[in-house]
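Let's practice the habit of predicting before peeking. Look at the sequence and jot down your guess about where helices and strands might fall. Then scroll down.
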Amino acid sequence: MNSPPTLLRQINRHSYRVCVVVTNLLLAVLVANNVIEMAARGFWQTSIGWVFEVNLLLAIWLYFLGIFQVYFRRGDISVDVLMRKAPLHTQRWMAITIDAVIVATLMMISWYAVQLMQVQWPFKTPGLRMPNPLFTAPVLIGSVLMALTMLERLLQRLASPEHLPSGIAGMGL
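Done guessing? Here is the structure:
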């Protein structure tokens, strides 16, 4: 049986791979929609009514699944100028504290996304009548995936006596 950190690592790796495929497909559809819209405007002087709503939905999904990929690859920006001046032991505990706060914040965002989706259920978009929670679901999914990634990073820091780098080194991509 897998230990929780190993299981968490496997979940994060699998989620990352799925999100890479999904975001690539979303981007391809977004580009295709825009090409179709430009052709309609250029050749027939008309606009396709559904393109705006669909592109907005795709862009939101692309953004929140994409930001998870950034967190997973440790591509998030961190300013370590002050941290590097502190003793190594202090650096480690500051990093642990920061990671714990990030996990808590992302879980709070997830909770609020669920609350918002419950409020949104009766409402639909004006054009295609898509359920409004479709626009909030990527916030929930992205924040949960980022929280799991940061939880893995936090558990790595807690298990390691030395300071782990902020960068991509050691991620085993």
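How did you do? The CA atoms of residues 25 and 101 lie 33 Å apart.
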